[in-house]
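Dear V.,

Thank you for sending over the compound details. I've combined the ligand you provided, flavin-adenine dinucleotide, with the protein sequence from our construct and run the structure prediction for the complex. I'm sharing the raw inputs here so there's no ambiguity about protonation or stereochemistry in the SMILES, which I know was a concern on your side last time.
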Amino acid sequence: MESFRVAIVGGGVCGLTCAVGLSKQGVDVHVYEAAAKFGEIGAGIGLGRNAINVLSSLGVYEDIRSRAMQVDALNLKNSARRPTDDIRGWFRYHSGMGGHEVLSDYGANEQTAQGVHRAAFMDALVQHVEPSRAHFNKRCTHLTEGPGGKGTTIHFQDGTTAEADVVLGADGIKSVVRRYVMDTASLGVDPNVKFSNTICYRSLVPVVRAAEAGCTFDYSERAVCFVGENKHLILFTVRDPDSSPEKYSLPPLAAVQQVTKEEVLNAYKGWGPEVTNLLSCMDSPTKWSISVVYPPIKSENWTRGPVAILGDAAHGMLPHLGAGAGQGLEDAYLLGQLLGHPQTKASNVEAVLRAYASVRQPRAHQVWENSKRAGDIWDSRAGYYGIRVEEVRSLWGYVWHHPVDADLHTAEEILITQGVFEKLQ
Ligand SMILES: Cc1cc2nc3c(=O)[nH]c(=O)nc-3n(C[C@H](O)[C@H](O)[C@H](O)COP(=O)(O)OP(=O)(O)OC[C@H]3O[C@@H](n4cnc5c(N)ncnc54)[C@H](O)[C@@H]3O)c2cc1C
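Below is the predicted structure of the protein with flavin-adenine dinucleotide bound, written out as structure tokens.
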């Protein structure tokens, strides 16, 4: 492999996973993060089977899981509930009202997903990134072509610059790199991000405290979705509920605000006792205004020369299937495999990035559509009240059941057909 320098703008879950994937393939990679350190907000993240497969293939999943499990065992020590292994089966759907009748019980025997704490997830990933390759307080303001038309120059807010042969934009929904790639930087408002008219309240509630408040459901083995009209409530067990403030402070986003418990209780006024008891246990709920990438970005616009986007920068979606990060992890994994491929070199890297985009865009967009559909179902806007198991199974099945190397094989085939790669032995 001919060496070239890769710079990742943004060290969130997707940027870091990409850095791990690239460095494991021996690629020269540096990460430039706007914040003073890598970190995540105090919330859970559901990792679907597809995301777990990516993390396992990168050799980091056991680390994530063991960190999370250690703390979980401590926190549940006074509870009658046993610390669980991976969640067996995924959602059970209940009415949010009255006696919370079961609407549907999805996949009771399928081991499909794991809920972990975002900070535990990040901590585990960070261990696999060499410190000298991580650069903080580096907020990218814009990109320009490199000197003599070679490579790309990344400009930072502090007046410094960095040069790279390949730049990957993992800088989230408000991506600066996307604006370079789509040539929209001169427009006042980014035409590819829209508020989705969706608000999300989030909080962590200690299992023991919920039980004391009169909650009777067992959330330790099954994720639960309370379905209502134009709103729903999702609960899953999260390992590592450490709430030390320096770890879990809010990101500097206007889109996230601290709100009172009363505001959330008011939003769910009239719902049944399990829901209101749970909400009464929240300490410091947050309110998220959810923006999405819309209209969808065509695959030919995921790259511009040696610059490409991944994660939320490319396909920020509604959170209703808990699938957004998983799609970004799939992007990151394919980029690692392709840029570390024995046949990739500085002279063909642009074609390799285009192959990445043409493979990843259709799948990520389908998951974007599935996530929107899921929200319509959970909020009873699908034309019926209730849950049709087969429909839900197919929305989630598409996300989860994706062989980890499928994208690589498809991209290799494209590159061989184009004459960029030689036929593999
Ligand atoms: C309420 C909610 C619940 C969700 N639940 C799930 C779930 O259960 N499972 C799941 O898979 N997904 C879930 N998602 C989606 C998931 O959070 C995102 O898809 C994922 O965090 C995107 O990761 P990212 O690395 O692409 O972007 P981000 O996490 O946004 O990271 C971007 C990084 O880039 C940095 N950055 C930004 N701008 C710049 C710049 N100009 N220069 C340098 N650095 C910059 C930021 O500081 C940050 O570190 C949820 C989303 C929401 C809103």
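A first observation: The chain has a mean pLDDT of 87.

Warm regards,
I. M.
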